[in-house]
Amino acid sequence: MGFMRIFGFESFGGPEVTRFLDVADLTWQPGSVLIHPTAISLNPGDIKVRNGQRQSSFPVSFPMAMGREAAGIVVEAAPSTGFSPGDHVFGSAFSGTGAASDSFVLLDATSTAAIPSGVEATDAACLPAAAGTAYDALAELHDLETWPDEGARLLVIGAGGGVGTHALQLARHFDIEVIGIASARKKVLVERLGARFMDTAELGKTGSHVTVPPVDGILDLVGGEVLEGLAHLAPEGAIRSAADKQLAARLGGSGITRVRTQERFAELARLVAEGAKRPVIGRELPFSAAAEGYEEVESGHALGKVVLTVNS
Fold it and tell me: Which GO terms describe its molecular function (predicted)?
């Protein structure tokens, strides 16, 4: 049996529990697609898993690799999946496994899709969690099936991060007017993606004359006082939060129901291939810099996505 390197953890806790570990090579399991990873996308949700905040909903088997999504080259897959060795794919990690490895990653076969021609692996790796969450939220708040939803206005709280930057582009594609709330350093990015920018700091400043108009829906990626202070701008029930679903529920909204199907992921990849949107990658680091990448994600100030690359 061979060994592979993961960036993971052997107990729940803060950043101090993560390190590089040598573990037995992963092998194909029914329902999975075994890949050699070329890109691994990092997400705030990975931090919650490591902290032990998702023990009731997310199976963890120590030692556990960080990460929940990756792109790479198929090593082994059941013929029924339609994938063969050598195919370039992306998707969500198989239940009970992580994605931060330089050798093998198991993807869930039902949440794996082919990478279209012209789409970079680094971009594809960002789609399952960030782009998927943004799309699912927009689909709940606006009827994308009857696009264009003329005259619709969306408020995105935390518009400069991984999910937010996807939401801005998707909204623009579906002709939805967007107000993006973010920190001042993300102003140029938010406006470049077609949204009206509002500074988070200005909203809470005494004597500030910044006013936010009523909207048809709120996508919240921050939670806390910012969401509470803006919730009244949306119609009853038109709040979706990826940051604090309990608060969103108390305000009449909810969390976001994720659709992690091959069909949904293929649609997200098609939008990238057609130029309708593209992941905003703020940092692209080698796998050896995984700790640095997660430090940036955990700071809450990452500009867009942070991605680790693996030499194929």
Answer: oxidoreductase activity
